[in-house]
Amino acid sequence: MKLAGRLRPIVAAMAVLAATTCAAQAEDANDYPTSARAEYVYGCMKANGEARSTIEQCSCSIDVVASIVPYARYVTAETALSMSQVRGNLGVQFRTSEQANSAVNDLRRAQAEAEVRCF
């Protein structure tokens, strides 16, 4: 009986720790603002057709991307992709930056994973 009394607080503490860890992971996966998610889905639908099934596939896709790439890294990749289209020195800086290329590669790998899972 004494052993059970000593284990009860330990088990309770472990349960609280597990719940906190799960909540933190859920927050990390959902740190993308709604506007960023909507923008992604809109672009995905433009690229893949505007059917009801496409909405579900594109929504799935951003969920997968969000679970793999942190939002700050996503913003870096999106900025690099957008700015690399600019002509001149400014565009060259984004096309040749190691940090930008790394972020874009991370995003592309996440999108490939989303393609496999959702489409």
Features:
119 residues, mainly alpha, 2 domains, 6 helices, 86% helix
What do you see in this structure?
- Residues 1-26 form the signal peptide.
- Keywords: Signal.
- Helix 2 (34-48) crosses helix 3 (52-68) and helix 4 packs across helix 6.
- The chain is globular, with a radius of gyration of 20 Å.
- The chain has helices at 2-29, 34-48, 52-68, 71-83, 89-96, 98-118.
- It is mainly α and 119 residues long.
- Mean pLDDT is 83; it is low at 9-27.
Would you tell me the overall average pLDDT?
83
Q: What is the tally of helical segments?
A: 6
Proportion in β-strands: under 5%
Q: pLDDT below 50 for ≥5 consecutive residues: which ranges?
A: 9-27
Spatial separation of the terminal alpha carbons:
55 Å
Q: Characterize the main sheet.
A: none
Shape: globular
Give the proportion of residues in helices: over 70%
Q: How many β-strand stretches?
A: 0
Give a quick rundown of the structure.
The protein is built from six helices and no strands. It is mostly helical and 119 residues long. The chain is globular and about 55 Å long.
Question: Can you lay out the helices and strands and say which pair or pack?
Answer:
Elements: H1 2-29, H2 34-48, H3 52-68, H4 71-83, H5 89-96, H6 98-118
Helix pairs in contact: 2-3, 3-6, 4-6
